[in-house]
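Input C-alpha cells:
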C-alpha cells in the first residue's frame, strides 16, 4: 500500500503542470520556470534516491531559494500536531523537528528562528523578531505506519491496515542583506504561494521514495539472511546425512584392515554388506542434492508418454515391499512393529470402484519417482505400521468464479487425474503442513527424529508435479495419518 501511494504521488508530481493548466498563464515567468523545474525534479526522484540518496532535498531548497533570491534556507519536518500551538510551545515539549534540507545554515540556527513565527496556517509569514526571514508550512501526509490492531499475532485473517502519519514541513528562507529586506520579503510573498503545493509534493514524494528504498534494502538484507540460513541448514543437514554412512564405511573398513586374519568369512561378509548399504545411502544423498539442483535450474525436462497409473502404482508398491523385506531393513525394524499393508484402489468420477485402468500423458520415470517418494514418506512416518493406500480417480478441475460468484471466462475445464497416498501414521502438525514441501524441511517431533533424510523428497515431488502442470498438497489428522493429493492433467499443456 505504501508503494502504491508512492507511485500515485510520483505520478502526481510528474504531471504537476497539469494541476496548474488553468492558471499557468497568469503566473509570472519565474514561477512557471520554477514549476517546470520542480516537475523535472519530481520525475527523477525514484532513480535519484537509489543512485544518490540524500541529493534531492538540497536541490529542492536551492531551487526555492533561487526563486526568491534567498541565500539561506531550510526545510524542517515534524510529526507533531502544529495547529493551535506556537513554535515555542512545540519546542518546549521536546525536539520534535528534524531537518530535511539546509542551505547556508545549521539545524540549530533554523530551530532558533522558529519561536518568532506561528505554526498555524500555510501563508507566507514574516516576523519582527526575524525581519529578513519568511516561513510557511507545507502540510503533507503519507501512509507510513501500521495500525496497532493490524499487528496482533492472533488475527491472521484481517489484512494490515495503514494509518496516515501527518508530516508537517516548514519552509524557512532568509536574506543576508539585513539593511534592506523589503525587496526579498515582497518577492517571497508574491512568488512562493503558487509553488507551495508543488514543493509539498516533492517533499512527500522524496520521503516515500526514501522509505521504499529503505524497505527494498531491508528486503534484500532479509533475503541474504535467509540465503545464509539456508546454506547453514544445508551444510548442517548434508553433514549429518553424510557423517553417519561415512563413519560406517570407515569403521568397518578399518576393522577389516586391522583384524582381517582374525575375522571369519561370515563376519567379513556382514561387514561388506554394511559397507555396501552405507555406500547406497551416500549415493542417495548425493543424487538427491544433484537432482534438486537440476530441477531448480531447469536443466531437467519432462518427456510425456502414455502412462498407465495403475501399473505404475503396482510397480512402486512392489519395489517398496521388496525393500522392506531386505535383511538390512528387518534388522532396524522392531519385532513388535505391525507389518505395513499396501493397497491400490481405482475409482470413477463418482468415487465408485472401477476396473477401467487410468492412462495419462506424463513422464513415466519422473512420475514413478513421485510415487516412490510419497510411499517412502508414508513408511518413514508410520513407525507402528498400518495401512498405506493409493487411490486413483479422475476429476474435473473446478471452474473459476468472479468476485460476484459468476463463472469466469476461461478455456474448457481440464480433465484431471488425482492420485492420493494415504497412510495411518503419526500425522503432521497443522502448523507444518505449509512447510513440508520446502527444501530441507523435516517434520520435527519426538517420534520422527530418528528418521534419516535430507528433507528433499517432498520438494522434489512438488517440482516434478508442477512441471507436469499439476499441483500437490497434503491433509493430515495428527495421530491418525496423512493424505497426499496429486492432481495431474490428463494431457500436458500445449
Amino acid at each position: 500500500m505504501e508503494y502504491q501511494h508512492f507511485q500515485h504521488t510520483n505520478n502526481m508530481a510528474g504531471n504537476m503542470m497539469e494541476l496548474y493548466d488553468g492558471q499557468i498563464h497568469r503566473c509570472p515567468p519565474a514561477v512557471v520556470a520554477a514549476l517546470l523545474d520542480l516537475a523535472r525534479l519530481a520525475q527523477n526522484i525514484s532513480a535519484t534516491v537509489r543512485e544518490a540518496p540524500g541529493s534531492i532535498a538540497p536541490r529542492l531548497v536551492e531551487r526555492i531559494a533561487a526563486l526568491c533570491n534567498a541565500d539561506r534556507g531550510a526545510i524542517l519536518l515534524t510529526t507533531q500536531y502544529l495547529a493551535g500551538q506556537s513554535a515555542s510551545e512545540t519546542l518546549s515539549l521536546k525536539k520534535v523537528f528534524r531537518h530535511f534540507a539546509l542551505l547556508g545554515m545549521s539545524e540549530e540556527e533554523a530551530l532558533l528562528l522558529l519561536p518568532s513565527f506561528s505554526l498555524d496556517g500555510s501563508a507566507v509569514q514574516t516576523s519582527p523578531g526575524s525581519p529578513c526571514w519568511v516561513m510557511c508550512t507545507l502540510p503533507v501526509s503519507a501512509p507510513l505506519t501500521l495500525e496497532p490492531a493490524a499487528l496482533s499475532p492472533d488475527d491472521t485473517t484481517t489484512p494490515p491496515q495503514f494509518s496516515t502519519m501527518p508530516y508537517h514541513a516548514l519552509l524557512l528562507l532568509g536574506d543576508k542583506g539585513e539593511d534592506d529586506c523589503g525587496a526579498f520579503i515582497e518577492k517571497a510573498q508574491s512568488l512562493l504561494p503558487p509553488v507551495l503545493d508543488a514543493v509539498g509534493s516533492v517533499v512527500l514524494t522524496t520521503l516515500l521514495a526514501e522509505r521504499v528504498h529503505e524497505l527494498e534494502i531491508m528486503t534484500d538484507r532479509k533475503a541474504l539472511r535467509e540465503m545464509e540460513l539456508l546454506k547453514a541448514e544445508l551444510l548442517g543437514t548434508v553433514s549429518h546425512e553424510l557423517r553417519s554412512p561415512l563413519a560406517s564405511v570407515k569403521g568397518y573398513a578399518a576393522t577389516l584392515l586391522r583384524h582381517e586374519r582374525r575375522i571369519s568369512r561370515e563376519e567379513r561378509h556382514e561387514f561388506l554388506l554394511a559397507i555396501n548399504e552405507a555406500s547406497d545411502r551416500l549415493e542417495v544423498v548425493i543424487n538427491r542434492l544433484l537432482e534438486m539442483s537440476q530441477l531448480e535450474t531447469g536443466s531437467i525436462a519432462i518427456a510425456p508418454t502414455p502412462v498407465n497409473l495403475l501399473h505404475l502404482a503396482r510397480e512402486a508398491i512392489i519395489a517398496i515391499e521388496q525393500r522392506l523385506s531386505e535383511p538390512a531393513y528387518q534388522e532396524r525394524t522392531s519385532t513388535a512393529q505391525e507389518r505395513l499393508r499396501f493397497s491400490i484402489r481405482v475409482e470413477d468420477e463418482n468415487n465408485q470402484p472401477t476396473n477401467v485402468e487410468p492412462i495419462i500423458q506424463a513422464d513415466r520415470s519422473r512420475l514413478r519417482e513421485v510415487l516412490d517418494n510419497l510411499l517412502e514418506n508414508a513408511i518413514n512416518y508410520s513407525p507402528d505400521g498400518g495401512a498405506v493406500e493409493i487411490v486413483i480417480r479422475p476429476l474435473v478441475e473446478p471452474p473459476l468464479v468472479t468476485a460476484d460468484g459468476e463463472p469466469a471466462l476461461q478455456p474448457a475445464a481440464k480433465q484431471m487425474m488425482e492420485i492420493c497416498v494415504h497412510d495411518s501414521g503419526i500425522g503432521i502438525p497443522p502448523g507444518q503442513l505449509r512447510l513440508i514441501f520446502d527444501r530441507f524441511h523435516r517434520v520435527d517431533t519426538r517420534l520422527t527424529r530418528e528418521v534419516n533424510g535430507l528433507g528433499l523428497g517432498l520438494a522434489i515431488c512438488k517440482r516434478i508435479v508442477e512441471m507436469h502442470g499439476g499441483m500437490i498438497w497434503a491433509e493430515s489428522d495428527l495421530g491418525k495419518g496423512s493424505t497426499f493429493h496429486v492432481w495431474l492433467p490428463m494431457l500436458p499443456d500445449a
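The mean pLDDT is 77. The chain has two domains: 2-149+159-223, 302-400+413-489.
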